[in-house]
Write a structure and sequence with these properties.
The protein contains 6 helices and 15 strands. With 239 residues, the chain is an alpha+beta fold. The protein has 3 domains: 55 residues, Roll (Structural Genomics Hypothetical 15.5 Kd Protein In mrcA-pckA Intergenic Region, Chain A), CATH 3.10.290.10; 82 residues, Pseudouridine synthase I, catalytic domain, N-terminal subdomain (Alpha-Beta Plaits, 2-Layer Sandwich); 78 residues, 2-Layer Sandwich (Alpha-Beta Plaits). The strands form 3 sheets. Strands 7, 8, 9, 10, 11, 12, 13, 14 and 15 form a 9-stranded mixed β-sheet that branches. The chain has a 4-stranded antiparallel β-sheet with strand order 3-2-5-6, with no helix packed on it. It has a two-stranded antiparallel ribbon with strand order 1-4. Helix 1 packs across helix 2. The longest helix has 9 residues. The chain is elongated. The relative contact order is 0.15. Bound molecules: uracil.
Length: 239
């Protein structure tokens, strides 16, 4: 059970006193009834909360799938550039959300947004072996020898060693490749291909573990993950 003013503040990303004011003004309904008592105890799993007439998702933690567009930062806040958190629709906005992992500003595709720190750690940490799948468009054709060097675990230009990666060519031109890595070093995919004398022109993440990006989500769109999708993150999609 949680206090009403605390829950409203968290869900609306506002201060506790602003939440109390909303409650006093009659903007908050619980199970279809206006409520004016800030200290009302809410059961977040069974009670229905409406704020300003809109139903609010009251789960303890949120797990959101976003199709990240290019030009947006994988950060919670930035003074100069729009962030993935700015893209959250009002019904999914709440304090404490952050991206579980990072995609470069120009990288597109699947990003999970959450407020569950332990979950994010499991997803990001290489020791949990969650493979992230990318589609990379390369500047020039790539040969088997270069692919094998990446498969074996390549050493980047600055001496950083990468874990073995899965990589395969996706089209005739040998410029579109599918890459799977289970760590997230800075600009890792781009630097892996730079280390074999190539260059990544476009990068898109299509899966995390066995969770695939929902193809009905346009760039910038987000939705809650289902429970089975959440589980699938920690399963292997295979090569
Ligand atoms: N590797 C990169 O180089 N960039 C990303 O955004 C993700 C992985």
């Amino acid at each position: 059970m949680d206090r009403l003013d605390k829950t409203v503040a968290k869900q609306m990303n506002i201060s506790r006193s602003a939440a109390r004011q909303m409650i006093r003004k009659g903007a908050v309904e619980v199970n279809g009834e206006k409520v004016f008592a800030a200290d009302l105890q809410l059961d977040i799993n069974n009670d229905e909360l409406k704020i300003g007439g809109k139903v609010i998702v009251m789960r303890k933690y949120l797990y959101i799938m976003l199709n990240k567009p290019s030009g947006v930062l994988s950060a919670a806040k930035d003074p100069d550039c729009p962030t993935v958190i700015d893209l959250m629709p009002p019904e999914l906005s709440r304090r404490g959300l952050f991206p579980a992992g990072r995609l470069d500003k120009d990288t597109t595709g699947l990003l999970v947004i959450t407020d569950d720190g332990d979950f994010a750690h499991r997803l990001i940490s290489p020791s949990h072996h969650v493979y992230k799948t990318y589609e990379a468009t390369l500047e020039s054709e790539i040969g088997e020898e270069e692919l094998d060097r990446i498969r074996a675990g390549i050493t980047l230009g600055d001496g950083t060693e990468c874990l073995p990666a899965r990589v395969s060519v996706m089209d005739e031109s040998s410029k579109l490749v599918r890459v799977q890595i289970r760590e997230g070093k800075y600009h890792q995919v781009k630097r892996m291909f730079a280390a074999v004398g190539n260059s990544v022109e476009k990068l898109h993440r299509s899966a995390i573990g066995a969770l695939k990006l929902d193809s009905s989500l346009s760039y910038g769109e987000a939705r809650l993950l289902t429970d089975s999708e959440l589980q699938s993150i920690f399963e292997d999609i295979g090569e």
